[in-house]
Amino acid sequence: MTQTDDDKEAGLVEAGRLLFAGSADFYAAAQTLDRLPPMEDVEIAFAGRSNVGKSSLINALTGRNTLARTSHTPGRTQQLNFFKVGPRLSLVDMPGYGYAAVEKAKVEAWTRLIHDYLKGRANLARVFVLIDARHGLKSLDTDVLDGLDKAAVSYQIVLTKADALKKSEVASRLAGIEAALARRPAAFPQVILTSSRDDSGVPELRAAIARLLSERAA
């Protein structure tokens, strides 16, 4: 009997649930390239503007409220933080971009680290670029997408804080971003709408990560 698309999607949602139902622990931090952990796991990185909700989303994915440190102060994540999930997966919380109050030298150091990490990490399966659903793509975000396209690093847009978006605004926000992605060579076309507050979209994001793990194992 042929498996339908709905059956496949349901299977991925369950695989994602099981993946994140197991262990999840912080295991490494790197402020310089020589401090990066060995390239052993499949890595999924999370990028986005400062205070877009990267740490909150990682906590929602893993079901652990304090796994990734959250803060209302932009610019608190100042290194690459690695979290081990199960036997084969690492999540990477990247420094937020676009926070001007941090001294220029520090921003330049973060930028070099992120660039070198993205360019040289063969086990990096995808970068999820988090965008605040209330504001959509801004110029700083498109600059980051330009860099990912240039480096040929696969990425996917995840909209955060979707609970703050009016229902009437959702379709137009998604359509606008999907249209912008259609011209980008390294972009995955599907946009995932999430909220860490009510966990909406979290099962779909887990399913997307489970799919990437399955593809890497093939």
Automatic annotation (TrEMBL):
<dbReference type="InterPro" id="IPR027417">
    <property type="entry name" value="P-loop_NTPase"/>
</dbReference>
<dbReference type="GO" id="GO:0005829">
    <property type="term" value="C:cytosol"/>
</dbReference>
<keyword id="KW-0342">GTP-binding</keyword>
<dbReference type="InterPro" id="IPR030393">
    <property type="entry name" value="G_ENGB_dom"/>
</dbReference>
<dbReference type="GO" id="GO:0000917">
    <property type="term" value="P:division septum assembly"/>
</dbReference>
<keyword id="KW-0132">Cell division</keyword>
<feature type="domain" description="EngB-type G">
    <location>
        <begin position="40"/>
        <end position="215"/>
    </location>
</feature>
<comment type="function">
    <text>Necessary for normal cell division and for the maintenance of normal septation.</text>
</comment>
<keyword id="KW-0717">Septation</keyword>
<dbReference type="GO" id="GO:0005525">
    <property type="term" value="F:GTP binding"/>
</dbReference>
<dbReference type="InterPro" id="IPR006073">
    <property type="entry name" value="GTP-bd"/>
</dbReference>
<comment type="similarity">
    <text>Belongs to the TRAFAC class TrmE-Era-EngA-EngB-Septin-like GTPase superfamily. EngB GTPase family.</text>
</comment>
<keyword id="KW-0479">Metal-binding</keyword>
<keyword id="KW-0460">Magnesium</keyword>
<dbReference type="Pfam" id="PF01926">
    <property type="entry name" value="MMR_HSR1"/>
</dbReference>
<dbReference type="InterPro" id="IPR019987">
    <property type="entry name" value="GTP-bd_ribosome_bio_YsxC"/>
</dbReference>
<keyword id="KW-0547">Nucleotide-binding</keyword>
<keyword id="KW-0131">Cell cycle</keyword>
<dbReference type="GO" id="GO:0046872">
    <property type="term" value="F:metal ion binding"/>
</dbReference>
<protein>
    <recommendedName>
        <fullName>Probable GTP-binding protein EngB</fullName>
    </recommendedName>
</protein>
